[in-house]
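Margin note: ligand = zinc ion.
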Amino acid sequence: MQGEPLPMFPPVYSVEHPNNSRNKSQESLVMEAFKRHSLGRAHSDKKSPKVEPQKAVTVNMVVESPPVVFYNSPQASSGAIFSGQLQLDVHEPYVTLDMFEMKFLAITSTKKPVHAHCPDCTQQETLVHKWDLVTAPVSLRHGVHTYPFSHLLPGHLPATTHGALATLDYYLDAVATMSNGEKITYKRNVDIKRAIFPGNEKHSVRIFPPTNLTASVKLPPVIHPIGDFPIEMRLSGITQNKADSQTRWRLRKLNWRIEETQKFVAPACSKHTAKVGGEGKGILHDDVRLIANEEVKTGWKSDFTEGNIECEFRAACNVALKPLCDMETATGMSVKHNLIIEMVVAEEWAPLKKPNQATPTGAARVLRTQFHLHVTERSGMGISWDEEQPPVYEDVPASPPTYMKELDLASVDDAPPLL
Ligand SMILES: [Zn+2]
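Resulting structure:
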């Protein structure tokens, strides 16, 4: 399936890539790319049995800012300050440093590249920010020299995501170039999280033609990968009265499930654009998985006088399945969630004078409807740099209910008779 042209980040920065194979994890591919790129001793290469001679200069980093958490939606987030110090430790009496720079990179890797085994199709890098710490030769004495850095990371950046189709990671990549041409490198992964403040509850209405049944559902505006959440539902229009009798729907079965939909538009590198029909196009992949499901056995009340069924239950993602948070990038990577509620209702008939003497008519229906669930990290994991500003809510409570838009999501099927 071929996607529409999509805006792509220009590749501002290119690294030499290893010959990667599909069965390696994306994390290790990224690390290998870094190792290969680095001319100095690979920082994370612990397997090497050789003890290399001490370099004239080593680079280290102290991060001073709290873990990066963007509050609110990409449109409303004020971002997060990232700050720290790069430490250049000179082990010789004097060295001359020609250049010292650091890049903040966003790296997207896919498990489904347009051209198999092509590193440029597999991985894309985007420069988020660059610090020019030393731009002209400078002589440094023995000892530790510190270079503070800071940047307000823009709040629209998508959060670090490790999905089934693609991963998005952020890295700091510092390079010190000595006067003899030697390059000392330092790499560090930076995890970016997003937390959306819970606002007002979401109210949605679904109708189930041709029946008279209507479901009004109250859901939290956001949910979290860990922890349960309440769902309140009222099914109305369950009774139809005639002169001396009543037909009514009885709820027989209630199930819910949460589906996670991942999408990724795999871009083609300049050599393989022909495979996707031109520049700036890609191949859309999607992956849907179940991250929770349960049958609700109890907890609903039928009121045949009012014609309503009220029910309240709690749902949660299965933590063991490592649910992802909702996210979306400009280049076609996204994660979204849906809550699907399925009800089986059976029809029965009762004389009005003896409403408790009901007889099943044998008719039954399956009512199915779905709601978007926004999965986000819990807020309160860090301190927002602008915490003194009042929070801005992007999601205004849905009022009136949004059922017009999502009407087609409700469905009614004939069910096999339950009795
Ligand atoms: Zn390619």
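DSSP finds three helices and 21 strands in the chain.
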